[in-house]
Amino acid sequence: MPTLPSLVDMLKSGVHLGHKKSKRHPKMDPYIFMNRGEMTVIDLEKTQELLGKALEFITNEVANGKNVLFVGTKRQAQDPVQKYAELCEMPYVNGRWIGGMLTNFTVISKMIKRYKTLKEQQAAGSLAKYTKKEQLDFARTIEELENAIGGIQMLTRLPDVVFMVDLKRDKTAYQEAIKKHLPVVAMCDTNVNPVDVDYMIPANDDAVKSIDMIVGLVAQAVLDGKKQALTNKNAIAAAKEAKEKDEAAFAAAAKEAAPTETAAE
Asked: Distance between CA 117 and CA 140 in Å, rounded?
């Protein structure tokens, strides 16, 4: 699990800055430290505590072979989501959310397959046999599919965990994740209802620095989980190899002992 940021580091990144009091959701009251004028201030000690639980969960899930879908389509989140998801080699959505991406994954799988096929054909020069107009149509189709599903092209099945930057902005994704009973890890600003979030992280979901910090930590948790998975895999392989050596040694010893016992008889 990544090292948690200090309270000072979170302050510098603006993680504590919530919305106006008039926009606060009552379910977020336990995570609000104080009101400063018309603005709410998030309790960073609770942020630190819950962030730790969220990162530990993600690390353990990835260590057990699970994957995490990063979701953040608001302007401030697009670059961090793509950057960190690609860094830890996880799927992401930072453009328009396609309705049914989780609840109708069969259709999405067909789109992914078509996108990959067209990309392969384009790279291999197989589309050169078509007319210029047809090639242009193919290029436009590839671009459209790239924008729509380019970030999830590695998905061969539903994600195991969904990490979200803004529940209000991406409410359709949130509702689909709940409908499919997928664990949700999410940044929760003072204007959202966190009741259905499995692992909430009270944090400013509007400031670029705040988003960058939290998304970066989630990516680090994924990388830590992958390292742990590799360590576990190597340990299992080593244990298997040791067992096979012991069994071979036992069999060899038994074979050598057999003639002696026969001679004694």
From this structure: 14
